[in-house]
Specification:
Rossmann fold; 2 domains; two-stranded antiparallel ribbon
Length: about 260
């Protein structure tokens, strides 16, 4: 037999568990699931190739499809330079200029929303699902994209996890894992999922013990994503959301 106090406690606990089971949170990377960065990376490639090649030097300019296939396969920048007809010294310089250029504001303007991503965000926004974005962009880089495409309405200011403008980057996996830990400490408990397109997304989610879905709309191909064993690999944000809704519905049914 339970005492009156124990009965109240058990009812309160059951109510809380029921409430939490209905709270669904989706953390999504920004570039890849939401923004298509392929044109930015390709324009950077063209610029770097033009900067490094000598007057009259014959080079082989890769098509966007050829270049993006190499990028998604994680072919090193130096090797991409060599594939374009640069020698070893030029390829090293090519890679250096690329690192300095690809995230600059003058090239970020080439980013556009992934086809269908805004419609998916609209659908989620109209539901009770909490949306969080977690990105390796700096504050200004994220804010500019949110403003340009009116995406700020989908992510409350305290649901945007990114790097400060003066942050000294270490590597994407370490930086994103730190962001993930910060988010899970600050946000209230919920049924949390991660959606991303890189190893940083997958490994940061795994480190925190939350399910993660890799999407093929970003900068890694299926083979590269498989190396890090996400729970699912799907085509895009919409397909990832469908997996989450189905899995969450199944858990509620079992519960």
């Amino acid at each position: 037999m339970f005492s009156p106090i124990e009965k109240v406690f058990n009812k309160s606990t059951n109510f809380l568990l029921t409430l939490l089971s209905k709270m669904l949170r989706i953390i999504t990377d920004f570039d890849g699931p939401i923004m298509d960065v392929s044109e930015r990376y390709y324009q950077t490639y063209l610029y770097c190739l033009d900067c490094v090649k000598l007057p009259g030097q014959v080079t082989t300019t890769l098509s966007k499809a050829e270049f993006w296939k190499l990028k998604r396969s994680q072919v090193p920048e130096r090797q991409i330079g060599e594939s374009s007809g640069l020698d070893e010294t030029q390829s090293l310089e090519f890679a250096r200029i690329r690192r300095q250029t690809v995230h600059s504001q003058s090239y970020l303007v080439h980013d556009v929303p992934v086809v269908g991503a805004i419609a998916t965000l609209e659908r989620l926004h109209q539901s009770s699902i909490e949306l969080v974005t977690m990105t390796m962009r700096r504050v200004d880089e994220l804010d500019n994209a949110l403003t340009r495409y009116d995406l700020g309405k989908f992510f409350a200011p305290d649901r945007r996890y990114c790097l400060s403008n003066d942050y000294s980057k270490t590597n994407d996996v370490a930086d994103k894992t730190q962001l993930m830990s910060q988010a899970l400490l600050e946000l209230p408990p919920a049924n949390t999922w991660m959606i991303g397109d890189t190893e940083a997304d997958i490994l940061s989610a795994k480190a925190s013990g939350i399910p993660v879905i890799g999407v093929l709309s970003g900068i890694r191909d299926r083979t590269q994503l498989q190396h890090h064993e996400p729970d699912w690999i799907v085509d895009n944000l919409d397909a990832a959301v469908e997996v989450i809704l189905h899995q969450s519905s199944s858990l509620k049914t079992v519960g």
